[in-house]
Amino acid sequence: MDNEGIANLIFPDVKDISYYEELYKDRNLKEGAVVSRFAPSPTGFVHIGGLFSSIINKKIAEQTGGIFYLRIEDTDKKREVENAVEGIVNSLKDFDIIPDEGFIDGETEKGDYGPYMQSKRGDIYKAYVKHLLKIGSAYPCFCSTEDLDDIRKKQELSKNMPGYYGEWAKCRRMPLDMAAEKIKNGEKFVIRFKSMGNPDRKIKHHDLIKGKVEFPENNQDIVILKSDGLPTYHFAHIVDDHLMKTTHVIRGDEWLSSVPLHIQLFQAFGFRPPKYAHIATLLKEENGKKRKISKRKDPEAKVSYYHEQGIPCQAVKEYLLNIANSNFEGWRRANPDKKIEEFKFELNKMGVSGALFDIVKLLDVSKNIISKYSAEEIYNYVIEWSSKYNLPLKERLENDKEYAIKIFNIERGLKKPRKDIAKWSDVEENISYMYDDYFYNGKDEYEFQKINDKETIRKIIKLYKEKYFDINDDKQMWFDRIKDLSEELGYAREVKEYKKEPDKYFAHVGDVSTVLRVALTKRHNTPDLYEIMQVLGEDRIIKRLDLFCK
RNA sequence: GGCCCGUUGGUCAAGCGGUUAAGACAUCGCCCUUUCACGGCGGAGACAUGGGUUCGAUUCCCGUACGGGUCACCA
After folding, report:
1. pLDDT tens digits for A146-160?
2. Residues of chain A (57-86) having a beta carbon less than 7 angstroms from strand B
3. The pTM is what?
């Protein structure tokens, strides 16, 4: 029995790799075009780190005139989650990340280099495993989990490097006849890569993000085909990225330490490895310590979290882009109206160590983005958001769209637009006082500021209502009248006057208008009171003022 | 523990042999002749640490500490 014999025994009906090498032609792309991919496992919804990675992958492919594709890595049946592919595609779509190839919805794939789902590529992997078997670079291993545990324990005791390698790799030296015998007897086995690496030698790797990295050569005989017949990640990566002509593998840096292995596998086939770029992990702070954002513990790990909060996708994207290339912020300031696509992204400008995900900063980015939307756009976004997360709000807005838009239009569209909405979930609270049911059902315990004596307040409001209020006044007129009112009641007409002679007055025009503001909105911090009153309209105003005139 | 990688203000970060060590978020103060927000101006706040190399190190080298990653028939 020789290598070829074992190969044929294990895979009698498998094609030669030359078939696939023929089938998948080189891509005909212009010089420098990058072929990149996002390759998640369908184990649930997209992780913020996954989004980060796909934004970068997409960007690089796009700006070089290349291809970005979506490949599903579903070789672990145990962890698979139903409908996850659809979820992934849709999440990416929300962020405007549309793959050029691969899955474009839950089940449809496009492109000439598929299938783009690993579970559908079984025969391909087998062909490549068979090839390795034939050339003596792989072998069947019959060790059970118990055997492996046993080996590990012995290694721990003798302080040897753990793993399946060298003298510990007993199946590596098994006579082929014996292996054939076991296979014929139906014994379970996996296929391992026969590593020729020597950890005393170093391999140098130039990572597009991390720069020069040196590792000992890999000497582990890792499993390439599991006993269920599916490949491990490492092996699938080699075969898929080779066949799909990936030029740049841009992935999380948890993979950095497998680079020696991957390069070795490419070499075993005589394939040219792609370029690698390893992205630093997104971290969060907890109890003063940094740690990886975890899907299980942290709600913000899930991309859906931002959706629920009503943070626009554009904001999340721009924030992430800023973490990736910190010059993005400056570019954005210089080009407030340009599309993200025009920003020139550079891998080598990425930070090598993990950044803390700063939600406060994200909200600031979001605030700025929202401030540029028109009232109509805001209305539409809020309707979209609330139809999923706040139905009563949706009904309220739709009941009187015109009124809602007037509210959103307050201090908007100016050179210095108001920036008080950071996320759609802020909106309800933000506009509540513009609606009577909220207003009258809200708390009655609200503070007037400087002027807080009930009788004085009553006097001011009554006089205002009877003598100085006219909904048809323009802004200047309106304010002049409040000044007149202030003067009539003995308050300073101008703030400056008051500051000059603070002893002469009890309060100033600002304090008087605060009384009106609080009476009309039950809060101190509101946008321009004149605009608010214009939107509220005469009836609502009179009714609210009347509360104080009894 | 082995092997990798990293450590510039509270956070994200530029700088990479000679700089008053940028900028943004957050924070504080003042101003914008009504609050808040916006905007403007200003303040406070940093090169983990010990050794080298050098005329000179935040920048280069070595060690230490701390942080992260990885060592599966998971990806």
Report:
1. 999 999 999 988 888
2. 73, 75-76, 79
3. 0.91
